[in-house]
Write a structure and sequence with these properties.
By secondary structure, the protein is an alpha+beta fold. Among the domains are: 99 residues, 2-Layer Sandwich (Phosphorylase Kinase, domain 1); 183 residues, Orthogonal Bundle (Phosphatidylinositol 3-kinase Catalytic Subunit, Chain A, Domain 5), CATH 1.10.1070. Helices cover 30% and strands 17% of the residues. The chain contains 14 helices and 13 strands. The strands form 4 sheets. The chain has a 4-stranded antiparallel β-sheet with strand order 3-2-1-4. The protein has a 4-stranded antiparallel β-sheet with strand order 5-6-8-7, sandwiched between helices. It is globular and about 60 Å long.
Length: 425
């Protein structure tokens, strides 16, 4: 059994404060169970934010004994979100010279660093200082790419490239990436992989910009081209904000956490379940708009065959002004080329389950609070934008060859149920 202190960066503040004590019970490398108890001083703060909005309500407190995760989870969802994902684990393993998945889960939690997603940090004691390392800047992208290549090849990163370790383990996902400093705040640099079949940074950036043209809420993006023709996609962090005294943080949890589900339960869940969670935890006055946004994202994913739409790739942000939760901006959207006519998303779309059809999306619109004419108007708006995907991609620098390689991901609306949608326009 071991203990950690969970820190929270509160709204309007740049320094984190102790929120409570986390107790981990590990067997071998895995966390078998955990408990969390809020600190009394934290609960007395007027601007206290729940560490986990579902499992750790401030009103429950936890007392001295603490609260346990729901539904048999070993670790609270919000702390699972603060633990490195596949890429972050590889970075930590490289630094500690450990084999794949060869470290205790608590070690990954400890080494994720202070730049992890959201507003949480994990430290040994209440008086421990943040392990802030100086984040690499956009000027270091060449070194970061070199470090990334070594990690992908299983080679140790030499000392002169260790600038990468300040931001490398901090953010989720399986692809290589790092947090970097820009003049106006923190951004995430997303790198090419040795396994890519096309220019992934350009493709991902173009897909996000296409989503913006479809009216979706997308963070700022850019492409940085290096002297050796390598390219990196940059996307602005939406869980950070500029304050007069420095960089503030917004608490963020995944939809997996908001639904209190196990990782393996994600394929059995649905977009409608996320819409329900917005109804339960969302900011009054914003729920309808966030549900419309979520519905439009589902339609976009159908049209571009983004089937990596699992519950970790949808998130909720704490809105400090409204003191509630909002749907986060869009992220991690990439088209998946394939030949199959019938396609599935990761999450259920409508009455036909995961079948990626526009008529299936229309039939399930009621769970989003949408009448058929309103839902059809959203579908039509997204269809019109995606129809010109190749123009957008080429304008943003994607080569004709790479456009051809991903073309099979983009679907003709008339082939996937648009006729039923048009009946309501």
């Amino acid at each position: 059994m071991s203990e950690r202190i969970v820190f929270m960066h509160l709204p309007g503040e740049t320094d984190a404060v102790p929120a409570g004590r986390l107790t981990l019970i590990e067997q071998g490398l895995q966390v078998q169970a955990s408990r969390f108890a809020y600190g009394r001083r934290y609960l007395q703060r007027a601007n206290a934010v729940p560490v986990d909005p579902v499992a750790l309500a401030l009103a429950d407190g936890g007392g001295d004994a603490g609260l346990v995760p729901p539904d048999g989870l070993a670790l609270f969802g919000a702390l699972r979100d603060a633990t490195p994902d596949a890429w972050g684990r590889r970075v930590i393993e490289n630094r500690l010279r450990a084999p794949p998945n060869g470290l205790p889960e608590s070690t990954y939690l400890d080494h994720a660093g202070p730049h992890r997603a959201g507003a949480l940090d994990v430290r040994p004691t209440p008086t421990s200082r943040s392990a802030d390392g100086v984040l690499p800047s956009v000027m270091d992208l060449g070194h970061l790419l070199d470090a990334t290549a070594r990690i992908e090849e299983g080679e140790p990163v030499p000392a002169h490239l260790e600038v990468f370790f300040a931001g490398g383990p901090s953010v989720g996902g399986a692809r290589p990436k790092s947090v970097v400093r820009m003049d106006d705040g923190e951004w995430i640099a997303k790198f090419p992989s040795v396994n890519d079949r096309f220019n992934m940074p350009l493709i991902e950036r173009a897909t996000l910009e296409l989503a913006r043209e479809a009216g979706l809420n997308v963070p700022r993006t850019s492409i940085e081209s290096l002297a050796d023709d390598r390219q990196v996609m940059l996307i602005e962090r939406f869980d950070r904000l500029s304050l007069p005294t420095g960089i503030g943080r917004r608490h963020m949890v995944s939809a997996l956490t908001m639904l209190a589900l196990h990782e393996q339960d994600s394929p059995d869940s649905s977009y409608a379940a996320i819409a329900d969670a917005l109804g339960q935890h969302g900011v009054r006055g914003c729920i309808a708009g966030d549900r419309r946004e979520l519905y439009a994202r589902m339609v976009f994913n159908i049209l571009v065959t983004n089937d990596d739409d699992h519950l970790r790739n949808h998130a909720f942000l704490y809105d400090e002004n409204a003191e509630g939760w909002r749907l986060s901006p869009l992220y991690d959207v990439v088209p998946k080329p394939q030949a199959a006519h019938e396609r599935m998303l990761h999450l259920s779309v409508g009455p036909q389950g995961r079948v990626a059809q526009l008529d299936n999306a229309l039939a399930g619109a009621g769970r989003f609070g949408l009448l058929p004419p309103n839902a059809a108007a959203i579908v039509d708006r997204v269809v019109r934008a995606v129809r010109s995907w190749r123009d957008t991609f080429e304008r943003l620098g994607v080569s004709a060859r790479d456009c051809d390689r991903v073309a099979s991901a983009f679907r003709r609306a008339g082939d996937i149920g648009m006729r039923e949608v048009e009946r309501h326009l």
